[in-house]
Amino acid sequence: MLLKQGEKIAFCGVLCALSAVFVVGAGLFPTMTYALPAIAGVLLVAAVMELGKKWAFFSYVVVGLLSLLLGTDKEAACFFCLFFGYYPTLKSLLDPLRSRMIQWLLKLLVFNAAAVLLYLIAVYFLGLPQESFSVAGIRGEWLLLLAGNAVFILYDRAIGGVAVFYWSRLHPVVARIFRK
Asked: Which stretches are transmembrane (predicted)?
């Protein structure tokens, strides 16, 4: 769909506002520190599909800045900035690769690098005690990383499903709105 510049800005603005509300909302619902930034990232699938990768990346930057400036839950903002925000765009770049093994290797490499970086930020900059990663006195960082990889695979599949749903159900509605 070819949109005029003003329509692109309006659509992008709405997506950015919705995504920012989800990330900033993590401050109101502390148990949603991981889920709300993930949902905010999923919303950017529409930007990738309707506006392209450049606009989606711009949306990611805007939501990331708003989250860091307005959000009270800095951990949620870091999750969005360091992984969930750019992943839908990255996925659109990696999925066309012919080798599924290389696709998954790159996806898992990016996720694990982001997870380790988030852990280091949480412990050394946000002051989260390392003991909070232990269960019954046993350090569980590696178990959490392993569980995170399993959840990441589900998240990747979910984004694919959301993209299919968006294109089949919501894209025609968006196209009709902008044709008027």
From this structure: 9-26, 55-71, 106-127, 142-167
Question: What is the DSSP code string of the chain?
Answer: ----HHHHHHHHHHHHHHHHHHHHHTTT-GGGTTHHHHHHHHHTHHHHHHH-HHHHHHHHHHHHHHHHHH-S-HHHHHHIIIIITTHHHHHHHHTT-S-HHHHHHHHHHHHHHHHHHHHHHHHHTS---GGGGEETTEE-HHHHHHHHHHHHHHHHHHHHHHHHHIIIIIHHHHHHHHH-
Radius of gyration of the chain (CA): 17
Structure tokens at 35: 């889920």
- Provide the domain limits for residue 142: 5-179
48-75 pLDDT tens trace: 999 999 999 999 999 999 999 999 999 8
Question: Is there a contact between 11 and 34 (Cβ–Cβ < 8 Å)?
Answer: no
Indicate the number of domains in the chain.
1
Cα distance between the two ends of the chain = 13
Q: Which CATH number does the domain housing residue 42 bear?
A: 1.10.1760
Tens-digit pLDDT profile for residues 78-99: 999 999 999 999 999 999 999 9
